[in-house]
Write a structure and sequence with these properties.
By secondary structure, the chain is an alpha+beta fold. The protein is 23% helix and 22% strand. Strands 1-2-3-7-4 form a five-stranded antiparallel beta sheet, with helices on one face.
């Protein structure tokens, strides 16, 4: 099975299964001399951790251990190996599902491709795999902080409830990571109602990267926005990505969509911080569409492995929505993408271009 690595210069390989003994990541290419300890990584893992309010009842401490690549509190430039042990595995919850395909999951496609699948929670195709991405993203965050780059994300839609960010600090205080306190309360109530109905719900995550220098990305096959979209689409629950004005651009005249150029930079940011695949120096603005969790208690049609029609109700411990726990995962993939691009040389210049 290929495709477990991400990046070229800041390169990450994730490993482990949902119901295996542990998951983790190996980071190759992180520069030396960056202050890093387990607490730096743990802060991001805590935001993704299950077993909290409005999330799955699976209780994982998600405690990370750094096995290599750090000495005297700083990175050495050698591979950084991270491990997070699984502590609350209940594979018996999936025994009734091992001979049928769960609608909305990768069970059937995985088996069609590989001839085998790990029915204990989905194995590598489980959302549990993303714990390793968040751990690796926390390392990228430490590197990017030294370069003046900040990445933050929040929930701006959950089901029918939508908002615009009004307070980014608020997103760190409420259980749905919403940067609007009033909308956050409505989202909480909506999640409770959906859970009571035995169903699930999706939403939209906004990611904003500030402090990115102009000049990240290449103009053809290695566009910054293309790489960001690919990184975010690699998250299992993500079904759409837009940059800047995104799909709204299709209904705007060019005279309004174009960002006027001034001596100070750009007067607006419909481009979302990227023009011609290259960063402009403005904030990167990205929105991600998250599908509803496919594990629902509502009866659904499916077939068994030998082709017999049946129905299934998914029992066990599941999130009602990938939101809020997907929010730090989206952050992580943007952090990893930017860390990789920041290590690419700028042609014909010994310093980075200005905005």
């Amino acid at each position: 099975m290929a495709g477990n690595s991400f990046g070229r210069l800041f390169r990450v390989v994730t490993w482990g299964e949902s119901h295996g003994p542990a998951l983790g990541a190996v980071i190759d290419g992180c520069p030396p001399g960056i202050p890093l300890c387990e607490a730096d990584i743990q802060r991001d893992l805590e935001r993704r951790r299950p077993g909290k309010k409005l999330t799955t009842a699976r209780r994982e401490p998600d405690t990370v251990r750094i096995l290599s690549g750090v000495f005297d509190g700083v990175t050495t430039g050698t591979p950084i190996s991270l491990i997070i042990e699984n502590k609350d595995v209940r594979s018996r919850d999936y025994e009734a599902l091992k001979d049928l395909y769960r609608p909305g999951h990768a069970d059937r496609t995985y088996e069609q491709k590989y001839g085998i699948r790990d029915w204990r929670g989905g194995g590598r195709s489980s959302g549990r795999e993303t714990v390793a991405r968040v751990a690796a993203g926390a390392v990228a965050r430490r590197f990017l902080a030294q370069e003046g780059v900040q990445v933050r994300a929040g929930t701006i839609a959950l089901g029918p409830i939508q908002c615009e960010p009004t307070d980014w600090e608020e997103a760190l205080k409420n259980p749905v990571f919403c940067p609007d306190p009033e909308a956050a309360r409505a989202m909480e109530e909506h999640l409770k109602a959906v859970k009571a109905a035995g169903d699930s719900v999706g939403g939209i995550v906004l990611i904003v990267a500030s402090g990115c220098p102009a000049g990240l990305g290449e103009p053809v096959f290695d566009k910054l926005d293309a790489r960001l979209a690919g990184a975010l689409m690699s998250i299992g629950a993500v079904k759409g990505v837009e940059i800047g004005s995104g799909f709204r651009a299709a209904s705007m005249p060019g005279s309004l969509h174009n960002d006027p150029v001034t001596p100070q930079g750009y007067a607006s940011n419909n481009a979302g911080g990227v023009l011609g695949g290259i960063s402009t120096g403005m904030d990167l603005i990205i929105r991600v569409a998250v599908k509803p969790i496919p594990s629902v208690a509502v009866p659904q049609r499916t077939v068994t492995r030998d082709g017999r029609e049946t129905t299934v109700r998914i029992e066990g411990r599941h999130d009602v929505s990938a939101i809020p726990r997907i929010v730090p995962v989206c952050e992580a993939m943007v952090l990893l993408s930017l860390a990789d691009f920041m290590l690419h040389p700028f042609p014909k210049q010994l310093h980075r271009p200005t905005a």
